[in-house]
């Protein structure tokens, strides 16, 4: 193995090159990225990067680190346009890079509302450039009303920021229950309470028919029932589509992501990682059929390292399995989810979901615990993550829930006593 | 190996706890408790995984 090429210079790509260098790989490493920016952290872009008066630099590493410690050739600002997996080459601008091992980590693009690309005041949040533009729009003096299309996690975070900045905020969601696919119906309703509690209007089961503009700037939206709503800023948070357009004709299987086997291999020498990757997660194949594709920070980081290690030493590749984890920051609180939201058998084991939290809920499929959701209970989900990863039973989970309940009571009692003396 | 926490970065996410629960624990208020200053014998690989998994890159090891 002499040349590792990594396409996609974000989280998964960065972790890919770092992992093999840490292992002592001494071949050439090239990291190709479509954006001009050095790899940077996306989660803050819909959170502090918009809400904080002083913002931190979201880049993970300095430029010198790549040339120096990591000894990685960076090719930024030019997308890869083609892969020939038989000849083992990748086309990047005028160059053709030959590889022995390849990691595909091109992530995903924000979905847009067709026909709105040229309307000022319509935003998506995926890239640093997106966030810079949205930050300015939300903080503009005349901005009073924010409308968010899509009640997913990123849209919800932007809505929360809008409230923090004092805007009137409305979320428009096509489904009857927001986030039903991500966390199930009941928990989707619980999370919707969180918005309402903070003064965000959430309208469900509504379709956006048309985006209305005046002098090239958004002025509102027309809904399916004909009503018009005025807005100053429109944020489109309707999900992401895997960045696979450059792989057309590559011979790889593309189906909402690049489809790989359990070792993350998509073709000989080609491994996938991050938001673009679809693979069978062996931990859940007994309860949820088929492959999964995650859009979570943790799995992108993790898969980046694994895919690169497999790419430089395919003989040593082993199945990659993981307990998915994501978090999302809404208002002053944090939503955390581990596992998968399979099955609708959900039990609230702490707190109360009726008002939107704090609470913890666990998810059952068959005889197993497969997921856990917590709102504003930061000590809880990670304890269940271990049970899920260990394929533990529902009874084990209930036992842990009972043990946690007693521990919390004991702590509350101690605090009360401390307060009296 | 010594475990360092950048307290300005840690947001109490708890990934570290899920990978090395004998060393890391997130308290009810979201603050991180580190139960060992040095990586305990036999836990090197768990702690290394925890360091790599922290979404805020708050953890590092000294004297690796
Ligand atoms: C606003 C926002 C907030 C988020 N918040 C959270 C959160 O709170 N919690 C959580 O768990 N996750 C969160 N995520 C998800 C997390 O950031 C992603 O899972 C992670 O960034 C995925 O990393 P990746 O490297 O796979 O892909 P990406 O980060 O999407 O990076 C892919 C890179 O590849 C580049 N690329 C695309 N095509 C090509 C090509 N043809 N050639 C070369 N380069 C190409 C792209 O320009 C991009 O830079 C958030 C994401 C966003 C956008
Ligand atoms: S994973 Fe990182 S942010 Fe989370 S508790 Fe551990 S050190 Fe803190």
What does this structure look like?
The complex is a heterodimer of chains A (421) and B (64). Chain A is α/β, with parallel strands linked by helices and 421 residues long. Chain A has 3 domains: 3-109 and 241-316, FAD/NAD(P)-binding domain (3-Layer(bba) Sandwich); 112-238, FAD/NAD(P)-binding domain, CATH 3.50.50; 332-420, FAD/NAD-linked reductase, C-terminal dimerisation domain (Enolase-like, domain 1, 2-Layer Sandwich), CATH 3.30.390.30. Chain A is built from 10 helices and 26 strands. Chain A has helices spanning 11-22, 48-51, 63-67, 128-139, 153-164, 180-183, 185-197, 297-312, 381-389, 394-420; strands at 3-7, 28-33, 73-76, 80-84, 89-92, 95-98, 101-104, 108-110, 122-123, 145-149, 168-173, 201-204, 208-214, 217-223, 228-230, 233-236, 240-242, 258-259, 265-267, 270-272, 277-278, 325-330, 333-339, 345-351, 359-365, 368-375. Chain A has a 6-stranded mixed β-sheet with strand order 3-2-1-7-20-19. A 5-stranded parallel β-sheet of chain A has the order 9-16-10-11-12, covered by helices on one side. The longest helix of chain A has 27 residues, at 394-420. Chain A starts with a strand and ends with a helix. Chain B has 64 residues and is an alpha+beta fold. Chain B has one domain (2-62): Alpha-Beta Plaits. Helices cover 23% and strands 22% of the residues of chain B. Chain B has 2 helices and 4 strands. In chain B, strand 2 and strand 3 (32-34) form a beta hairpin. Classes of the chains: A alpha/beta (421), B alpha+beta (64). Chains A and B meet through helix 8, strand 23 and helix 9 of A and helix 1 of B. Bound molecules: flavin-adenine dinucleotide and iron/sulfur cluster. Flavin-adenine dinucleotide (FAD) is lined by residues 7-13, 32-35, 42-43, 45-46, 79-80, 105-108, 125-126, 154, 243, 246, 274-275, 295-298, 300, 326-328 of chain A.
